[in-house]
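Hi support team,

I'm opening this ticket because the web form for multi-chain structure prediction keeps timing out on my end. I have pasted the exact lines I submitted so you can reproduce it. The total is 439 residues across two entries, so I didn't expect it to be a heavy job. Is there a limit I'm missing, or should I split the entries? Thanks in advance, R.K.
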Amino acid sequence: MNPAGALAQTFSPRVGSRLPIPTRSESCKVIALLELAESSRIEERALCEQARGGSRHALGVLLERHGPRLYRSVLLPRLGSVDAAEEALSVTYTKVIERFSQFEWQDVGVYPWLRMVALRVAIDMLRLRKREVLFEPSDLERQMNHSGQSGATPEELEEHDLAAAKQRVAALLDRVHPRYASAIRLRVLECRSRDEAAEQLGVTVATFDVVLHRALSALRKVLSQTVEGA
Amino acid sequence: MSSPSTPDWLAQLIAEEGESKPVNVQERNALLCALTAAESPSDIAAERHRQILAQALESVEAFAPPTEQELLQAAQLRAHFDSNPLVLALRATQDPSPPRPQLERALRQQALQHVTHSHRARSLRRISTLWGAVAVAAAAAIVVLAKSNSPLEKFEASPSSRPLALSRSTDSLFTRSFDSTSASGRIDKIAQVRARDLRRNRYAIWGLP
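Hello R.K., no limit was hit. The queue was backed up. Here is the completed structure from your submission:
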């Protein structure tokens, strides 16, 4: 875990439990992590200043640092295909570079701003794609509104975005028959073999193929209903 | 003596029956709901009823023997399982992979090529305000220079290691006739192949393997 992530974990309050009093060595570790987080924030702020001044190098460092995270936690889960996510990352980079002069430094760093740009790009792309996507533009708009006010770190936002994507899959599977949901979980999400999935479901492999076909059709229907509802 | 919080009758009742366990708000609400439902039950909401009915019918379908068409479709799914768009979307959402490092670097480099141009344009605007006609001449020179260095021209001029896909008929994409009443499958196929061509051309221009 990186220093900021460790910090977030160290300081996030646990409901219903008392925080243990840290030992001397733990305290030293926390102080060291705090200093590291502070120094990286200062460094990022300097990079942002340079980037606003048109420094190609600074922009390159910032995008190299945060781009893969945007792709993995924001774009790919919401757009649902590698091709679309790569295209979205390209558009995001271009937009970030075009608009970086508008960025104003916040204590949480540049990542929340980059994430907002990526979410806007994803929304535009979702509006054009109506098939085989698990998210609606309105879902992403809600996420933007919800997370825009919080001062979360990049690691916390990443964790939040990945969890939201998983929740979306779970919510969609809840809307199909449990037998279908099991078939999709086993074969698609857990990547089990057909034989293994069939055995788990207690059917022959041939029957499992049909169940999986029906399951994906049912899920497609749920998605189309979601589109119509939106 | 009566107090605002404990009236006489309640004090007497407590004296006779003893202190009763305080009622939990949730328990009280649940009890009220149960009493209301028993006393004057309301109709089920139409949308909720539709959902329940659909689930029940889905149950019938989930265990029904397969039709010939379903067997064919299941075989098609099995053959193209790993490229099925919905399968890919589910996997990408549940467990997304990081971007390919080489491609991410190429995208970044391509986007960064715009930095020099946009920064140059901003500087140009300031200079033109200050220096008027002299700066206009300089701007013209810079614009000419910038145009000659545009990334598009660089891409067009860069040698491609691979031959690029050309526009062509869609006939070769279909080995057998398709159902004319539902066009989406055919359109999807054409869109998929054309998108792949575009992507490969782009990568070839960027010099990616």
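A quick check on our side: The first helix of chain A runs from residue 3 to 11. Let us know if the file doesn't open in your viewer.
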